[in-house]
Design a protein that fits this description.
The complex is a heterodimer of chains A (636) and B (256).
Chain A: H1 3-20, H2 24-49, E1 54-56, H3 61-85, H4 89-108, E2 119-121, H5 123-153, H6 161-180, H7 184-202, H8 208-239, H9 244-248, H10 254-270, H11 278-282, H12 288-297, H13 299-314, H14 318-339, H15 344-365, H16 368-399, H17 410-413, H18 415-429, H19 434-448, H20 452-477, H21 492-510, H22 512-528, H23 538-564, E3 584-586, E4 592-594, H24 603-606, H25 608-635
Antiparallel strand pairs in A: 1-2, 3-4
Chain B: H1 11-21, H2 31-50, H3 55-75, H4 79-110, H5 115-118, H6 130-143, H7 171-196, H8 202-224, H9 230-255
Classes of the chains: A mainly alpha (636), B mainly alpha (256).
Keywords (chain A): Membrane, Transmembrane, Transmembrane helix
Membrane topology (chain A): Multi-pass membrane protein
Organism (chain A): Acetivibrio straminisolvens JCM 21531
Chain lengths: 636, 256
Amino acid sequence: MNAISILVLFPVLASAAVLSVRKDAVRNIIVRICAIVTGILTLFVVCRYFKDGISLSFANKNIIDTVIASVEVLIAAYIIFIGIKNKKYIVSVFASVQTALVLWFEFTHKHGIYIHSDIVFDRLSAVMVLIVGGIGSLILIYTVGYMKWYHIHHEEYKERKSFFFSVIFLFLFAMFGLILSNNLIWMYFCWELTSICSYLLIGYTKTTQAVNNSFRALAINLGGGLAFAAAMVYIGTNFKTLELSELTAMRPELAVLIPVFLLCIAALTKSAQMPFSSWLLGAMVAPTPSSALLHSATMVKAGVYFLIRLAPLLAGTSIGKVITLLGAVTFLISSIIAISKSDAKKILAYSTISNLGLIVTCSGIGSQESLWAAILLLIFHSISKSLLFLTCGSVEHQIGSRNVEDMDILLKVSRRLSGYMIVGIAGMFLAPFGMLISKWVAMKAFIDSKNILTVIILGYGSATTLFYWTKWMGKLVSNANRKDHVKHTFHIDEEIPIFIHAVLVVLSCFTFPLISRFVLVPYLSGLFGPTVSMPIGTSDVNIMLIMLSMLLILPISFIPIYKNDRRRIVPVYMAGENTGDNESFYGALHAKRKVKLHNWYMEDFFGVKKLAFWSNVLCSVIILAGVLVLIGGITK
Amino acid sequence: MQGRKGPSVLQPFYDVLKLFQKESIEVNTMHRFFVYISLIFVIFTTIIMLLGGDILLALFALTLGSIFFVLGGYASNSPYSTIGSERELLQMMAFEPMILLTAIGLYYGDKSFFIKDIIAAKIPSIVYLPGVFLGLIYILTFKLRKSPFDLSMSHHGHQEIVQGITTEYSGKDLAIIQITHWYETIITLTLVYLFFAFKSPVSHVIAILACIIAYLLEIVIDNAFARAKWQFALKSTWVITGVLASVNLIILSFFR
């Protein structure tokens, strides 16, 4: 058996093992071991096949296909059942239509289509495997610590930890399968499986809100799955192939663009782009580790990963333009809405949608520079956002709230935790960290491909991004001294994965020239020929690295100055009415009043109510325009 | 008519020298750190610019410096400083698109972001970037901290937010903030300079003159207008950026 097959199938085994164990202590050990094994397998596979890549074909394909088809039927039956039971008929309809479609295709048209390579591992898959396997196993280790406290803090929810871990392992299997498959039927199966896992995890707490949100996520993702199935059937019947690599090698003519557009729709639903974004916001009711894994680091990345794969067919076509515009609008609007939010997970969700929008824009343009930026964005965003979600989960345990307004005491509660969070936030938008490097290259790519409108949108979007992150950071450094907080300890279970994440954020910024040299340039050379080079000049890279070193060294260099220069400390200025503890002031009639400092949310300007509706309308119109372009092309 | 004599032109420099000799008091041990880091990154930006480096990279370093300054306001956890920080951040959000679009406009001259290439172009950028230039002049008021857009801090103590971000700083730290501002002024005027400088040596004299005129214009504006509300600051800047700079760039991208 090949190492890749082991990597893909191992999580299934882990999933089954975890499900059967009821004892907490035993299960925790099993989860930790399986997480570490997954991590090691990931590293092994990547090291083993990194240089030359590999494509595999399986001899006993019929058996695998039969197993997949029967599992698909079982899943469809389950979805139809829960849809009817919970009166969410739309999911039942979606599930029955797409399963019927796929089964019909498999029994009538599939014969005679020979698939040369079922699994393809190249540099881009290596990146995704590293993200899924690496970050996935770190998050799993974190989850062990997190879930221990989750149920102590939330006694109202039924404890289903075995189920939770089992689904996460199942999800890892689906994700590996999705990334590595070149066979569209397998890919479609894994695609659907990730939707189901997401549904199960969102509904974990079984509250009414959680159930409703999980069904919304399922409905939208199944809608995308339906588009995927339709595209697959179209490709199979018209081109007599079922391989992704065959599809991307075709010329972007109208007959090809129709299934590509359908696949793009599927990708956009998975990546929660407007107008399909509402499910990701609802998904935030899930326990934080699953948000970190599914809804920021990996599953939503599957959509943009797919778009990056399809990019050669999008570059310069009308569909590409539609996708570009849609991504750009999503990027801007969600970064604006994020300003009006104070719930940390909501901000993270909007920021995820926004950054995915940027990746979508880059892949819609499809030039070599823009794809360079897209892949780098994908890497950096996964690491930083996963770090932020994990710290967010720990902060919730520490201060009992995930409202950014309450995080002003975090520096007093846990200095290290707020430090990690600051690293995560810096990684999201500040020079010289990764996201900014990629945004910078994206901007260059937009200019060079004459997409001046996207450049302008990126200008505005960067400004709004800067606003919501900095005000959050401001709360973290504000060092408020409220005495009413209860101190918890920051557990080692949670700290180790968070620490590794933080190191990865910094390390990935230092090593991005290497990532470019060994991953991005070779991959892009395969698409664009040997002329590909790094879009940032050496002198600029050096300046970036100097800046990064400065950021690391400067805080340390201040310690001796602080030791020698002790100063008089006075109460803060409150127009002379500070009571002396910096927490309250003398108001009218000399009554003591608490000081409350709030960030600006500017609901009138950036409120979600006004913006979300119109942006969804706008994005629907853009998609409709894509449909019209295709119909116009057919009738011509 | 009054023939009264004001302080000399060099007074700001004397003020800073005097501040260095004053006692520095603070509200906590954290917040001065941010001011020094801010200064270091602003100096870094100036070096990149004067060495003819990448203008986008320089602007990113400048943003980093400004963000540290804002964080310093938050770190004091004082009501007036925090309001000042929020307003400063809002100002940054207002003018940031215009600054970025300026850099992008300058790129079109020689298809390079490097300042040394921009000032060696065949024709001055002002010729094809009039809209962008006007937009830049509009946001100059923010960068030079002049009325009507001096929302986040002010030289005058007795106003609605006291001195905004700088409220809790004194002595050396306040002097550092003033020096940071001088650097920022140089950086901002360098942007004006880039619109006029090109291959011809005479153009550099014209460019310096343009900077002086722009600075004097800002002093006139400072004295002629009362402080605006933040709503107006944000809306007007975004609209002006959207109209002047964007239209200019869209037209330009058709021809180049």
